[in-house]
Amino acid sequence: xxxxxxxxxxxxxxxxxxxxxxxxxxxxxxxxxxxxxxxxxxxxxxxxxxxxxxxxxxxxxxxxxxxxxxxxxxxxxxxxxxxxxxxxxxxxxxxxxxxxxxxxxxxxxxxxxxxxxxxxxxxxxxxxxxxxxxxxxxxxxxxxxxxxxxxxxxxxxxxxxxxxxxxxxxxxxxxxxxxxxxxxxxxxxxxxxxxxxxxxxxxxxxxxxxxxxxxxxxxxxxxxxxxxxxxxxxxxxxxxxxxxxxxxxxxxxxxxxxxxxxxxxxxxxxxxxxxxxxxxxxxxxxxxxxxxxxxxxxxxxxxxxxxxxxxxxxxxxxxxxxxxxxxxxxxxxxxxxxxxxxxxxxxxxxxxxxxxxxxxxxxxxxxxxxxxxxxxxxxxxxxxxxxxxxxxxxxxxxxxxxxxxxxxxxxxxxxxxxxxxxxxxxxxxxxxxxxxxxxxxxxxxxxxxxxxxxxxxxxxxxxxxxxxxxxxxxx
Length: 475
Prior knowledge:
By secondary structure, the chain is of the alpha/beta class. The protein has 3 domains: 5-29 and 276-378, Aspartate Aminotransferase, domain 1 (Alpha-Beta Complex), CATH 3.90.1150; 35-269, Type I PLP-dependent aspartate aminotransferase-like (Major domain) (Aspartate Aminotransferase, domain 2, 3-Layer(aba) Sandwich), CATH 3.40.640.10; 400-473, Alpha-Beta Complex (Molybdopterin biosynthesis moea protein, domain 2). 36% of the residues lie in helices and 17% in strands. It contains 15 helices and 21 strands. The chain has helices spanning 5-15, 34-41, 43-46, 63-75, 87-97, 113-121, 145-154, 175-184, 221-224, 243-252, 259-294, 329-340, 362-378, 400-405, 443-454; strands at residues 19-21, 79-83, 104-108, 125-129, 132-134, 139-142, 160-164, 171-172, 188-192, 216-219, 232-236, 300-302, 315-316, 320-325, 342-344, 346-347, 351-355, 408-412, 426-427, 459-460, 469-473. Strands 2-11-10-9-7-3-4 form a 7-stranded mixed sheet, with helices on both faces. A 4-stranded antiparallel sheet has the order 12-14-17-16. Helix 4 (63-75) packs parallel to helix 11 (259-294), helix 5 crosses helix 6 (113-121) and helix 12 (329-340) packs across helix 13. It is globular and about 60 Å long. The model has no long low-confidence stretch (mean pLDDT 94).
């Protein structure tokens, strides 16, 4: 033992030689991109601060400004800002940068927890749009365009609408039409595009949010392009006033930004801009071949283009693999890791999600196919027989901020029925809350939290990690 737990843990994982179908998108640079090798070879020398000649992220005038302009041109944005605190600081900044306290904002009920936290910090009044559910996979995949138009009409005083595009599962709503309708009503469209940093670089993929007319979007460079973890971009489009967004970026970005991270964003942008189309063509070819071969294996279903139009799915990112298994997602993820050294990005009750990027090799898909084929054979007599996830009936009765800052107390989860939550409960991944401050704790929510706990799914946000107790508003 080296008495360095994190290093020991990382080295142990490295020694397992797992196939990566998870973020980050560089996949350990197995493709040996020259741009990434430059960073590796100069890692400590590149780890610098704002000395003369190296510019300043918060007031860029030189190389950082030039790099951000190149990123903006690449993404079709009016302005782009490097994010070294991950996508979260970008989501905080774009939401709070164009709103003021007590403004009304429309959000998807299945958005990432960072959107909720921005609403809490900004003291915003939330109106929800519920997602559509895809039967068989039992996951939220899109939103009904007519429903969101009707909701905007009923909430014409809303300052903004926040949408997730693509979802964690690779599905897309009709963002272009929604954006056009929002503009008619002077509602800003802000997009959590964390899983779509790559879609701008190949016409076989969904249209990027900025190209759909969004006012601002945040893309996680590390999720689907060859960039280091915690790197992202905030892209500004349209005519939105970005002064407030810049102010919030100065508040939420580190005052000691990593030059290694900024170099990583710049290198990933260069790789994708210069040869992303060809690299994505290659990746899509691997995936199409994999899907074709999987048709002969029983026990699995894969989200793919034939599902367009179902549950209001407008488009699908074909580089994202969402696979439903008859033995359940958690069990499949466990077997893949323990027996075949293949690590998926996440699993839920029924599915596994695999993040595929330009860093993956053909052999990765060959090993995945062989593993799934063998699992299907050995597990053929078993079947997944458990409750299906139904979208829960959420009942907000207080704002997030009022609930959080109210006096509270802890009670047993079983005794919390019809009480008001002071905290957030977030199965992670994917980071979508099933309960937020200010919402009534219903019987269904209690039963679902208990179910997730039995399944060993991590619950983020709740102060009691065992979820035996929950913090409620005390009147």
